[in-house]
Amino acid sequence: MVVLLTVVGFFGFRQIAGSLVHVKSEKNQKVENNNKVSSDDNVAVHTYNLPEEEQNIVAPQMVYKITPIPKPMPPQTTFGYSVNGRAIGGWIFGSGTETMFFFGAIHGSEKGTVSAMNSFARYIFDNPTVVGKNKRIIIIPVANPDGYANSSRLNGHAVDINRNFDTAGWTPQGANDNFGGPSSFSEPESRLIGDLVSNYNVSTMVAFHSKGNLVHPEANQSSYDLAHLYSSYSGYRYYNDIASYEGTATNWLREKKGGTAITVELTSHTSSDWTKNRPALLQIIK
Ligand SMILES: [Zn+2]
After folding, report:
1. Which of 35, 58, 194, 247 has the smallest C-beta neighbourhood within 10 Å, fewest atoms?
2. Global pTM?
3. Could you give the angle at the alpha carbon of 240 between the alpha carbons of 195 and 192, nearest 5°?
4. How many independent structural domains does the chain possess?
5. If you measure from the C-alpha of residue 106 to the centroid of ligand 1, how many angstroms do you get, rounded to a whole number?
6. Among the three residues 28, 44, 68, which one is the final residue of a domain in this structure?
7. How many CB atoms lie within 10 A of CB 118?
8. Are residues 10 and 54 in the same domain?
9. Same domain (yes/no): 271, 135
């Protein structure tokens, strides 16, 4: 963990547990051995007893206060570009043969999904052994960067990308005929996902949306099973009372690729729901 150092007193910079830390001496305070670090990497306070030989030299007890600097995310792979030329990037973890694809913000206004995907990638980056040996994990936090930049559900052509995939019943939808696009796969953002699925032989897709507070499977047994599993570990209700929409990425993966696909709807448009999603994500990628 990279942390910011400020030094109080005469102890100076130190190397502790592989980290540079800010060291502060506070005599006569109660010292606890609780190495708590917040999962959001905001502010952490580490306290612990000094080794006995140092106690003899400098002070009977010390309190170390550590303020982490948010670590940069691992560099992204650019998979392609949006209508307005924004890069669509993400991360690939693991090298197994079973590829699972996770993405957020195919609807650009659903911003909590981006935080969820960034937290997920950060967690894997920090804990790479959570990815099963047979798994390859692809994460794209912002599938619709033009919409994200404009806080819009739609892409730079005012198309709902998640109605633009080539399902059998695809039709233009919405108030105007362009809502689902002039034709299926008319949009660079949906074509990028289609190409990625083919190029990496994606077998499982988990699409993040908001804010239904639910997990919804596509219509095959493997998707039902995955949605039940995700529901049990996350607490999102399992919801399968609606027919699948035409033109969605998840429905397309099931229909055209025979894949496993679920939609996770976060509880709000702004929250990552990371504490709900983490146990479910770790369970399904192991
Ligand atoms: Zn959505």
Report:
1. 35
2. 0.76
3. 10
4. 2
5. 7
6. 68
7. 18
8. yes
9. yes
